[in-house]
Design a protein that fits this description.
Elements lengths: L3 H10 L2 H21 L4 H24 L1
Length: about 60
């Protein structure tokens, strides 16, 4: 799997439980990377993007109510 299209396809095929496992695994991988190298730009970008996505999702959910 080497393209974003392939990743989207695989994500679309996941169950909710498996999607949560993927998110948890990604979080753990970047958390470990950050512990090994506190200044790592990739892990900082991941967490910044994750926080942005969480905020956007929360705002979207609030707007639906």
């Amino acid at each position: 799997m080497n393209s974003s299209n392939q990743a989207w396809e695989h994500l679309g095929e996941l169950t909710e439980e498996d999607a949560m496992h993927v998110l948890t695994r990604l979080f753990s991988m970047y958390e470990e990377q950050e512990k090994r190298d506190p200044g790592n730009k990739a892990s900082a970008l991941f967490f910044r993007n994750l926080i942005t996505a969480l905020g956007q999702t929360s705002a979207c959910n609030l707007n639906r109510r």
